[in-house]
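Why do we care about 3D structure at all? Because function follows from shape, and shape follows, mostly, from sequence. That is the central idea of this module. The next example makes it concrete: a single protein chain, its amino acid sequence, and then its structure expressed as tokens.
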Amino acid sequence: MLLNRRIAGFDGIRALAVIAVVVHHLGIWGPAEEAGAIAQRVFPLLSGTTAVQAFFILSGFLITILLIKEKRTTGRISIGAFMVRRSLRIFPLYLLFCILATLALVFLNGQMPTRALSYAFLYSYNFVPQTDYLPLLGHTWSLAVEEHFYLVWPLVFAFGFVNRRRGLLLGLCAFVIGSLLLHAVLVRQPFADGYAISRWSFLAGYNIALGCIGALLVTNSVGKGESARMFAGPGAFLLGLLLYANTLYIDSGSWFIQNVACGYIRAAGILLMILWIYLNQASMLVRMLEIRPLRYLGTISYGIYMWQGFFLTTGPRRVAGEMWPPSPATGVALLVIVAPLSYRYFEQPFLDWKKRYTRAANRRAGQVADEDLVPVSAQDGRA
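And the structure:
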């Protein structure tokens, strides 16, 4: 399989996730819950937080798949090439957003929140104190978590993939368990009220680590047949769905269980469903996720995510006297117009550079196929 092969269904997942983020930031679920239209137990299944979990897990899975392909086709991992590809995808739009947000805050709202802007420009908004938090910049926390993780993971992967694969898996599992235990400790500290500690990279990063674990499991050439059968069967998907929907049946008075532990369980469920989709490329579910509108929304989902933060911020509340952001209705209209234009005329040129860079890497590798990385349904025709 070449480095740039597309996996069906994943754009559909991205589309559903970014829709959930937009709906969450429009503040629809709160009034719906108050009106009795949606139960409190259902909200975590549809929330923007869960959507970001899906983005994280999918990202960890795909990045690791690409690293495995690169290692097996070229015999090495080019950290520089990885960073170039990552930068061309993420940095241009992110930097444009930060500049526009700065201009809006200074010239429209008459503010100069130097500390908040510094956190955003330095990719560290997930560590911003609550006293400096600005809703206009709020969604950038997730980009910070990803970038911090990917400063470390390619190096660790390059060092341990060939001879220490089991060590990689054990290390990732230890990171996931350690983040849960550390969260339990930190949330009880006096300073916890002043920060959104669940967004700190070494805590929120467990979602990305789960995606990495999944990629290592389904591409294990030694036990690939067993792994494929285990994760490709209907039982794996049903178990994933059950874990994803855990708040419907877990009833606990513990704040930590409801707000933290259930999130870890939900992430495991999301991972199982992603693995099932990867291994069942000809399934009806994948065909549904490949419906053209969903696929297109998934393609431009990064732009939607960034621009919804600019036009909607992270909630429907507006401060009196502020000229920006606009009303939620106007923000949605602007989002619908700007996101596709942004993808076509701003993001696409950088993506073209990224694709050319990837094709050059394929040519240098002689475009060697790697059958160990082809989803099971693509190998034996099973749906």
